Structures are given as structure tokens and as C-alpha cells.
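Budget justification, computational time. The allocation requested in the original proposal was used primarily to generate C-alpha cells for proteins on the priority list. As evidence of use, we reproduce two of the resulting records. The first is shown immediately below.
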Amino acid sequence: MARAFLLVLDSVGIGGAPDAASYGDAGADTIGHIAEACARGLANRAGLRAGPLTLPNLVRLGLGDACRLATGRVPPGLARPDGDASAAVYGCAAEISRGKDTPSGHWEIAGCPVRFDWGYFPRTTPCFPPDLVAALCREADIPGILGDCHASGTEIVTALGAEHIRTGKPICYTSADSVFQIAAHEEHFGLDRLYAVCRVARRLIDPLRIGRVIARPFDGTAESGFVRTAHRKDFAVPPPDATILDAATAAGRDVITIGKIGDIFAHRGTGREWPASGNDALFDRTREGIGALADNGLLFANFIDFDQLHGHRRDVAGYAAALEAFDRRLPELTALLRPDDLLVVTADHGCDPTWPGTDHTREQVPVLIRGGGMAAPLGRLPSFAAMAALVARHLAFTGMPAATPTAAA
């Protein structure tokens, strides 16, 4: 009657991966630097939060201990209280996939590391191949594009939103990730039309090995300000090999995926897809999923706000507040778990809000376990795929590696 719940806190990294220097991220530490900023009073915001980072429930699961494994130190405020003898089951994991993007991280968590190099667009302006732009304009019936560069999504919409409305040209941009992003106004351009343009773009860029085309709808006016809406949609390539979702589906198990998991896996093996916008809504859907998941089933959820609203915007106070809000609600989930359920709380990469730029950071991730009959720390896991092995073993189905070796804690 065992069930498994895999929760990804998007971008909640815990210190540079062994190969972080090759990505320009040596020294990045999402949780560590947020905790340090909070301890120094640099993440206070009136009406939002103040003081040291306070995450008692994640600390009880072993978050501070996982940070120690990754970096050799426990961040300020994340040490377990003196006398706490609870047997936390924790570890840290390093990614072996190439890249530091969302699909690579999630696919590896699901047992499918990325062994190939993604395609990327150069840091030039324009950055997209002229023949790609010409084909997109022709086949999607648009009068041209704006942007054609590397950019922050919020900043480029603010800068070009009015021109987009006036000309009807969608705003196209990229980042350090393997992405082609298309922003358009929901009312003036139309949401369905934006999705249609993205589908054309997805087909055209397949030969370039670009991981995702992302629809970025927004609303508002130049006077009131442009705001991205909740109708983002990712058009991803499917994983190259079987994942834990495929294995669960092939075994006839109940599968529920929460948030953007369906998009990340190109809707393959993703079972009942329950979308939601924002961490609170995603948390509510996850609570519903715990009640609805059948025996021997798998629930896979992504909590996006850490990355999308705070990491990329380098908002330390907002990131800290989001972590604390999640932590406050965590007991709502753990109270619903059965004795034979397995809960895994992890992340897919880092997005250190104190780091230069606005891109992801190549970091290790926490692996925090509750249930599943496990009692000893996991140590350092050499691949995110170890989590897929744990889930497969717990749910007793084949199609995934039986186990992944671990190092001593």
C-alpha cells in the first residue's frame, strides 16, 4: 500500500556543485547566502519578513545537515536545536546532467540524466538565426519580432510591451538556459494565438536542440505597468529515455503531477495533471493529491515561486519569505502521510539571489526524506537519479536502476 511523493522546491540549491567553476558558479549557495543575508539583517522588508531565516520544519527534516554535507557548514539559523535527537534522513546530490536548467534537473531526478549538450543562443544582439526568425514570421503569420536578445523577462516586457501592442510583434528573448521565450499581451495578441506561435517555434527549433519554448503572456498597460499572468506554458522536448513517470505508468500505477511537471516532461507518463499558479495554490493541490493518490501511486510536484518570482529577480527578502511560508505549511502535508508513505523533498538546481546576473546557478540540492522505512542519513549522492532509484525501490516496480551508491555522511 506504499505511496511516494516527490516535491521539487524549484531552485533551492545548497552550494556549488563539484563542477560549478565550469559554469561560472564557484561559490554560489542559494540557501547559504539567503540565510547569511537574513542573519545580517539584509533581508528585512516591512510587512513581509524580518530577522534570521526561520525554517524549523525543513531543519527537522535535515536541511541544515544537508547543507553541511554540501559545503562543510550549516548556514545561520539552520542548525538543529540542542537536544534534538530525531533521526532525520537527509543527503545532498550533485547533478551529472549537462546544463543547469529545469528540464535537466527534473529529468535526472526522475532517473534520466541528460548526456548530450543542449543548444544555446549566443550572447549577441540579434541572437537568433535570421532564417529561424524569417521562418517563424512566415509560418506563424506574425509581422516580425521584438527583442531578439538575452534578457530578463520582466525587464524586456516593461521595455517593449507598448511597442508590442502597437506593432503586433511578439517579444522573443532567451537566457543562459536552452530556451526560446515568447512574450505577448493576452488581450491585444491573444493567449491562444501566443500558444499557436510557440507550437510553430517548437517545431522550427527542434534541430537546434533547444530544450524549451516558453509562452510568457502578460497583461496591463504602459501606464499601469505590465504584469506576467499565470498562463505561462512550456513546450519542451520529451526526455530521451524512460523516467520514473514512464515506469510508474507502465506498471499501471496512479500518477498525479502538480504544477509545471506535465510541461517539463512533454506530458509523457504524467498521469493526472493538476496545474496551479503560485506556491500556495500548488501546496493546496498537493494536499488534495495526497488524499486522492491511490495505493502504490506516485505524486510529483514542482513549487515554482522560489525560482520564477525571487531567484531570477535576485530578490533575497522575497525568496526568504517564500521559504518560510512553505516551511510553515509543511506540517499540513506531513500530517496527511500514512506510515508507509515516502516523502522526498529536493530541488532541481540553484538560483542564488545574491549571485551576479539573473540566471540559474550550478549547485548541489538537498535530499530530505520522511518515511519509506529509512532511518540513516543518505550521505553525498553522486547523481540526482538516486532519487528515482529510491522511489522505484519503495514502490517496487522495475524499469529504473535498483540503487545508486552513496558516500559516507
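The second record produced under the same allocation is shown here.
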Amino acid sequence: MSETMAIEPYRRVLALPGMRALLLVGLIARVPLTGTGITLTLHVVGDLRLGFLQAGLVGAVSMGGSALGSPIAGRFVDRSGLRPVLAATTAAQAAFWCAAPHLPYQALLAGSLVAGVLSQPVFGAIRQCVAALVPQADHRTGFALDSMAVEVSYMVGPALAVASVTAFGAPATMYGVAAGLVGAGLGLFLLNPPTRTEAESAEREAVPRRQWLRPGLIMLLGLAAGLTFVLTATELSLVATLRLDGATEWTGLVVALWGGYSMIGGFVYGGLSRGLSPLLLIGGLGAATMPVGLAHGGWWWLCLAVVPCGLLCAPALSSTVDAVNRRVPASARGEAMGLHGTALTMGVAAAGPLAGAVVDGYGPGWAFAASGALVALLALAATPFRRVLSPPAVPGPVVAGGDLAGGDLAGGGTAGGDATRGETAAVGGAVLADSARS
């Protein structure tokens, strides 16, 4: 594929009215969201003088609340539009983050749950708007752009939070998070991007959930959870490997390079003439993760070992977003994207304790191998059902064709993720901060 062929889809998508503004606002809006996990972790460990177990519980209940609230927020966006949901969730986030520095631990734990349920639906809403602004033929490129923007946010947000806590303290950083979240909500409120095309908006009749929440979509959501499981386990294992080798100071560089490889992979994938199956991409990611633990002899070997799995991160995530979008009618897109976010969050939540147990019991090398093998086997197990899980015919302007191994599931995000990597970045940042203190 020539350079012109690779660039042309991006030129075409970025030339669409409102697309550049949406991507820019979405990138900036996600930065404070990606810094919330590490900020809470450092506050609990540093200011409240508690352990990482207590900090982990705060992160766990926050993720649990987010998993519960994400499809609910998406459903309200489908029914009432984006602005009312943004107004309510932004007010809730401002109240929590302004009060959080003054709360005792038990109140902080309860507040984190409520704030998680009332999280701003930025990740899902941006993807919903991309689907509305970009013609169906270019959805893969649009979702790839969104995926790369997510990577940038996760590279900036946690690092910025750690730097802020180090320079100004956790309470000041929490006020800064509050200001950032208010700014994110206000920016999206003023931009008010469409969540449906004009043709989709004309379809007022809602499609019953039983007509689109079918086994094929459920299997796809399971694969999305497996994807963030292996991404989270990989990041935790990278932190543990470098700490074991006495190279903790290189953690930020290795993780940043891993994210950079993901952006390169996402860019290449978005410029392809046709997409690839999520089964293939997620299974390949799992297989490429398994041997990373064999890299020994210095942190630079890890930088090379994560190249194959890094290149597949953004393509795998964006392909699941595109696949979900193709399987549901426009009237349910917000709720479906919310369920996708829930799946990503569940993968992150499951990976923390499971990968941590393997690291503690057998070492980080086995955590790479076990998590990669588990996800590769999950994708392999789903392969025989690809035709059975073919998307059903549903009313409304939705493309329903192909099967799980191709067709509607080929192509186009979150690490996700969306939810995906903030908590694992928080763990890595907490380790770095703890190392700096000692």
C-alpha cells in the first residue's frame, strides 16, 4: 500500500465538518479522566497513610460503579440526547472531586462508588458521535483516529497526575481533576456533536433490546473484556518485571513506547482498504503477549519484546468498537457503547487481582504467558461459533452482515478501553511514586 493510499482515508475523514473539533475536544476531555485512578491511589497511600490494598479497593469500587453506570448513561443519551447527561454527570464529578480531599476513607470509598456510577460518558459518547459524523464506509478509519487519541490521553493523563501530585500534593491535584472534568463536560456540552445522522434521527421508534442484545454481541463483549484483561495484565507485569530487575525508573519509558507502538499499529490499521476480524486481532494479541516474559538482560529488551503486542493494541480495540456499532441500531447505539465500556472495565477489574496473584506466586514472566494464553484460547474457542453468532436483522439504519470471523466484525478501538488502561497506569504510577519516596 502506497503512502498516498494510507493517508487518503485520514484526509477524507478529517475533512468532514465537525470531525477535527470532535477529536480535539475528545482528546483533551479524556486527559483528566485518565488521571483519576492514579490521583486517588496516591491520595490514599500518601495523604491518608493507608496501604495499597485500601487504595485498590477505592479503584475497584470506582470501576464497579463505572461498569454499572456506563450503559445507563448511554441509554439516557439515546433517549434524551447528550447535553442533559453531560450536565448531570459533570455536576456530580465536580461535587465528588471537590469534596474528596476532605473525606475520611470510608466516605471516600462510598463516594467513589457513586462517582463511578455517575461518570461522564466521554469515551462512549465520542465513539457514538464518530459513528454519526463519519460515513459508514470510513468508520474503521474514524474509530482508528479515536483509538489513537485515546492512546495519547493515557500517555499524558497519568503522567501529568503523578507530576502534579509530586509538585503540588494530592489535594491540589484533586481540585485540578475537578476543574479538568468540568472543563471536559463544558467543552462537549458547547460542542454538542450529533449522536445520530439525520436519517437515523428520523427513526423515532426504539428497537427492543431483545432484538439487538443477542448471543453474537454478548460474545463480542466477552472478547472485549478479554482484550482489556490482557492489556492490564501486560502493564502490571511490565511494572513488576522492571521493579524485579531494579529498573523501576525506566517504567515510564517502556510503557510509553508500548503506547507508541499501539498508535503506529492503529494508524496503519485505519489506512487499510479493509479491516480484520476482532477474533484474529485479539487472538494474535494474546499470542504475541505470551513470550514477552522471556525478555531478560535489561529494560531495552522489554522495549523490543512489546513491539508485536503493542502494534496490535489499538487495532484490536478499534475493531471491537466498529463491530459493536455495526451490530446495533442507531436508537440503541449509546447503550451498546455503554455495554462495551462495561465489558472493557470488567476486563481491567478481573486482571488486577488475577495477574497480581500470578506475579506474586510465580513471577511476572508467567503472568505474561498466562494472560496471553487465556485470551488466545478465548478467541480460539469463539471461532467455531462465528456463523452461529452472525448478527440478526434488526430494524433501523444498522448494517447487519458477515459473521464473527469477518464481515461486520472486521474493522475499526479502548483500550480502551477505554476504561482500559487508566487503572493499570495508576498502579505503575503508584509504584514509581513509592519508589521515589523511599
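A brief technical remark on that second record: Residues 262 and 313 are 5 Å apart (CA to CA).
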